[in-house]
Design brief:
- By secondary structure, the chain is mainly α.
- The protein is globular.
- The protein contains three helices and no strands.
Length: 82
Amino acid sequence: MKNKNNENNYSVKQLTDKIQELQAVKFPKDHSMKWAYTCGVLEAILDWEVKGYNKGFKSLQESINEAYLRYESELQAELTIA
């Protein structure tokens, strides 16, 4: 889905899939931490939203979009190195 700035709005599922992808590349033999890390990212995003730290600055959707793009960029960097 596109937002008003003609950027993609990513879903939580897309974000979690991207984080899982990155974790699989960074730590291919360690499957125990990938869900814990993913849950930590989601908890942090939600905590900031619930506690009002983002109030007036960005929406929950913008936070998800930024996180997705950050992990996509990190994944591309990891794949370039490998």
